[in-house]
Specification:
Length: 310
């Protein structure tokens, strides 16, 4: 195949986490187990919230959406990886790769927006408790989720349209277990300046902006908790946002770890290994974080499973 600006290839090869045959069975078993835990764990959270009328509140409405997004986010990459290992094929079509990039960005950005909306919800609950139900009314909650989805869809669509203008010549091996936007841009043989510009601008705006909002919300929350006189009151106020704070820390720290490690080592394999943290480990741990630290969720889960309440 001769290099050229008009060159189009029909498929790519996903090299995965390891090319050693003896590790493929271990990787398949480990990732299948983690994926099933992620899907069933988040499904249980969705069922628990849907089946218990006491959980039909703004906080759990956002958590319900977050669990759905986590299932979709993980399902964008892991099933294809497992299929490739099972069939001993590394092929992904050009269209499949673009689709994977679209949905991966869509659900990742939705995750970020939902976490920032949940931070705002906790800010209103702790700093303006008497007006909480008036401010966080059902109309506003649905509007916040709708805006999050619209922004995520438009951002994903922009990146994919920008990808379609790129040409790929002879370098069609992706040193990753999924089609990651940055990796794809690096493989292109046409000018990628505009793609890089849009990618970094969107990252700063759509990841940095919500993160700044989360930091602002928690600065107000900490200030409000500090003014509570009783230790029991401080603990009760902090416990309502501890789970969310844990999930935010896990998500942002793992994503930051991916980009810091890739920048420090310049190794695509290292980046692929570390990216497992935010594509699979973080969504898998979220149900445990919320269920273990939340009495209402635990009670609803016990009712679904059939465990008698003590």
């Amino acid at each position: 195949m001769e290099p050229g600006n008009d060159t189009r290839i029909s498929e790519f090869l996903l090299l995965g986490l390891s090319e050693e045959p003896e590790l493929q069975t271990l990787i398949f078993g480990l990732f299948l187990t983690m994926y099933l835990i992620t899907v069933f764990g988040n499904l249980l959270i969705i069922l628990a919230i849907g089946s218990d009328s006491h959980l039909h509140t703004p906080m759990y409405f956002f958590l319900d959406n977050l669990s759905f997004v986590d299932i979709c986010f993980t399902s964008t990459t892991i099933p294809k990886m497992l299929l490739n290992i099972q069939t001993q094929s590394k092929v992904i079509t050009y269209e499949g790769c673009i689709s994977q990039i679209y949905f991966l960005i869509l659900f990742a950005v939705s995750d970020i927006f939902l976490l920032s909306v949940m931070a705002y919800d906790r800010y209103v609950a702790i700093c303006h408790p008497l007006h909480y139900m008036v401010i966080m009314n059902p109309h506003l909650c649905k509007l916040l989720v709708l805006v999050s989805w619209i922004m995520s869809i438009l951002n994903s669509l922009l990146h994919c349209l920008m990808m379609l203008r790129l040409s790929f010549c002879t370098h069609f091996q992706i040193p990753h277990f999924f089609c990651e936007l940055n990796q794809m841009i690096q493989l292109a043989c046409s000018d990628t300046f505009l793609n890089n510009l849009v990618m970094y601008f969107a990252a700063v705006l759509l990841a940095g902006g919500p993160f700044a909002g989360i930091l602002y919300s928690y600065s107000k929350i900490v200030s409000s908790i500090h003014r509570i006189s009783s230790a029991q009151g401080k603990y009760k106020a902090f416990s309502t946002c501890a789970s969310h704070l844990s999930v935010v820390s896990l998500f942002y720290c793992t994503m930051l770890g991916v980009y810091l490690s890739s920048a420090a080592t310049q190794s695509s394999h290292t980046s692929a290994v570390v990216s497992v943290m935010y594509t699979l480990v973080a969504p898998m741990l979220n149900p445990f974080i919320y269920s273990l630290r939340n009495k209402d969720i635990k009670r609803a889960l016990k009712r679904i499973i059939g465990v008698p309440e003590m």
